[in-house]
Amino acid sequence: MDIKSAISRSTILILSFWILEMNIYAIEIVLKGNAHIKATSHEQAERILDNNCSNTIHGQDEEWFSNAPSRYRTRASLSTKFTVTGPVVAATFIEVPRRTVRAAQDRWGRYWHGLRWAYPPLSREHEQVPVYSTSLDLTTTAFVRAIRIDAAEAVVAKFTQLTLDLLDDNSRWFSSRALGDEGGSDLPIVLSSALYLVGKSEGCQLSQVWPDGPYLGTEFVARIDGFL
Questions:
Q1: Which of 14, 50, 114, 186 is deepest in the core (most CB within 10 A)?
Q2: Residues 25, 144: contact at Cβ < 8 Å?
Q3: Angle CA(63)–CA(66)–CA(72) in degrees, nearest 5?
Q4: pLDDT by residue (tens digit) across 121-154?
């Protein structure tokens, strides 16, 4: 074996060893987006939001996300774009096996449908029910591929303040490909598809965004709104 071949072989062995030594770290992060709720009054919208937070939705369920005109929205939907605001307060990195990433991105059976459906009487009257919006915080688990925790921290720091389009790019953010052994991703980070609804972002309030005037029709209450 000549010197050039020996050097090439040694380089491959070193790179292979480095790849094998890469770890997967997990940390809870906060995403900030908009929630849209159809309700016949501001008070009803507040009750719907307050009583339906602390639930977990599936980020790969596209029916949760809507860019439809306001009058045609279902009872509740989320914006497609979310800003990463950083780790949850006091969250720390923990090292996890790769199977944890796969489990966190699978279609788990008990995810919540909640207010995704429209009111039963999808009629012209329903289309006139106002839409209220607010900034909403969600949390999820971020998985980072890095050789050490300080390297994982650097990845999350780069990730913070990015805007993620969960509807169009869910194949990227909810896929483990960016953590693959080939290490080809510039940002080796992916998300759990379990998105936990925390509540209104700090300092934000629900406000009517459609239509401009007050609602004068009848109150719509569906069976699933039993808390109203």
A1: 114
A2: yes
A3: 100
A4: 556 777 788 999 999 999 999 999 999 999 999 9
CA-nearest of 11, 29, 20, 55 to 156 is 29
Which residue stretches of the chain are H helix?
3-21, 42-52, 98-105, 124-127, 149-159, 170-173
Mean of pLDDT values over 83-109: 90
In angstroms, the CA 170 to CA 164 distance is: 9
Query: What is the pLDDT, as a whole number, of residue 33?
Result: 95
Number of Cβ within a 10 Å radius of residue 154? 13
Q: Count of CB atoms within 10 A of residue 197's CB?
A: 20
94 or 53, which is more confident: 94
What is the rounded distance in angstroms from the CA atom of residue 71 to the CA atom of residue 199? Answer: 23
Q: What are phi and psi of 132, to 5 degrees?
A: -110, 140
- Taking the CA atoms of residue 212, residue 215, residue 217 and residue 221 in that order, the dihedral angle to the nearest 10 degrees is 120
Structure tokens at 37: 């709720």
Q: What is the mean pLDDT of residues 6-28?
A: 63
Cα distances (Å, whole numbers) of residue 59 to 37, 109, 140, 196: 18, 13, 10, 10
Q: Could you read off the pLDDT of 172-211 as tens digits, one per residue?
A: 899 888 887 665 568 999 999 999 999 999 999 999 999 9
Residue 214 preceded by cis peptide, ω within 30: no
| pTM for the whole structure | 0.83
Instruction: State the CB neighbour count (10 A cutoff) for residue 99.
Output: 9
**187, 178 Cβ separation under 8 angstroms:** yes
86: left (phi over 0), alpha (psi -120 to 50) or beta: left
